[in-house]
Amino acid sequence: MAEIRTLFLDGPAGRLEAVLNAGGPDAKYAALVCHPHPLYGGTLHNKVVYHAMKALHGFGFPVLRFNFRGTGLSEGRHDHGGGEVDDVRTALDWLNNEFHLPLVFCGFSFGAATGMRAACPDTRVKALISLGTPVEVDDRLYRYSFLRECAQPKLFVSGGNDEFGPKEKLEEVFAEATDPKKMVFVEGAGHFFEGKLDQMQAAIREWLPTVLPL
Fold it and tell me: Which of 37, 112, 116, 174 has the most CB atoms around it within 10 Å of its CB?
């Protein structure tokens, strides 16, 4: 069984609780998976985050998950996405220092919207995966104009019935993003891919070898 380490990262607002699923000895990449909105129950143990980790770990990558500031045992207070971008940078730096491998970023919902802001300008990140990309959530409107300058390959996977990312709105975000990019809708799935997590995983497993030398 693969080693699982619980650790703490030295974040800008205090310690960040993290879990690392160790990779294989010949891993070619290290991966980060970011969790959904912490004020609505999102943690590193979220089901979508866990299944995304399993898909990436299946390639032999070491995969890091962490709790954003103020979540679980992580110190600090929720910063509505601002400081959380720095949390993601902390995690990317830790992976780079620990493994000295090119990186793959994956985020779900809030974790995608926040994490891509850190991952896109980071040349160490060679591919980005956005799961359940949020567009309209109550009074929170997510903006993605930065994707125009995001040169890495990008995969967007969302449920066909995602209540926080309606198809037509998500297609607008996708159109704004620069190439290379791919969009996958999992039909019959909502925001959390209930009953369709295997199809979400399959989208990751099928896409990654088409954009990275594995």
Answer: 112
The full set of domain ranges for the chain reads: 4-211
What does the pLDDT average to over 172-178?
96
Question: Does 195 have pLDDT greater than 80?
Answer: yes
Domain 4-211: which CATH number of 3.40.50.1370, 3.40.720.10, 3.40.50.1820, 3.60.10.10: 3.40.50.1820
pLDDT in tens, 63-97: 999 999 999 999 999 999 999 999 999 999 999 99
Which residues fall within 8 angstroms of residue 175, CB to CB, at 6 or more apart?
A: none
Residue 202 has a pLDDT of 98
List 186's β-bridge partners, or say none.
159
For the record, the structure tokens of 50 come out as 């866990």
Phi and psi at residue 16, in whole multiples of 5°?
Answer: -115, 125
